[in-house]
Amino acid sequence: MLLQSTALGPLYRANSGGPSSRTRLEHITSTLLGRDSGPIRCPRHLSLALDFGQDDPVITVHRLLFEAGFQDPEALRIPYGHALRSMICQVNPTIPPLVVSTAKPLEVLRQAFLLGLCTRVRFDLARPVLWTQASLTRRLELFDATEFYA
């Protein structure tokens, strides 16, 4: 049960199995995400973030898509969908974004394609490409969990 959000993150209450006189407060500040070595590995694979300025993200990427000669977002699977697998996503608002107005259109389309396959917590190549205001403006780190054994 989520009690409240704090500067260190959400505060949860869990049942420790004892009476309330034995309650404890623990702040967990560790993560397995981003570990490149050791018995538990979940390395950072890539970061995704786009800055559209005042432009509408959905209209902008559709315009770039048609100007580049693609019929729909699913057509981007051919150039950008190979050698990818499911990954874990983590929202990170500090990722420096690619500025759409000054970037190469194909680089913007690559990031938009990948963002369209993400939720806030998962990248899945089997998903349809969904371009929404929310999906295109997320700042995400993607982690490869294929070598995660715990």
What does this structure look like?
By secondary structure, this protein is an alpha+beta fold. It is built from 4 helices and 8 strands. The protein has a domain at 44-143. 21% of the residues lie in helices and 19% in strands. The strands form 3 sheets. A 4-stranded antiparallel beta sheet has the order 3-8-5-7, covered by helices on one side. Strands 1-2 form a two-stranded antiparallel ribbon. It has a two-stranded parallel sheet with strand order 4-6. It is elongated, with a radius of gyration of 19 Å. The relative contact order is 0.23.
Task: Give a quick summary of the entry.
With 150 residues, the chain is an alpha+beta fold. 21% of the residues lie in helices and 19% in strands.
Write the layout of secondary structure elements.
Layout lengths: L1 E5 L2 E4 L31 E5 L1 E2 L5 H11 L9 H4 L6 E5 L6 E2 L5 H12 L5 E2 L9 H5 L2 E4 L7
Parallel strand pairs: 4-6
Antiparallel strand pairs: 1-2, 3-8, 5-7, 5-8
For this entry, give a set of tags.
single chain, alpha+beta, two-stranded antiparallel sheet, 19% strand, 150 residues, four-stranded antiparallel sheet, elongated
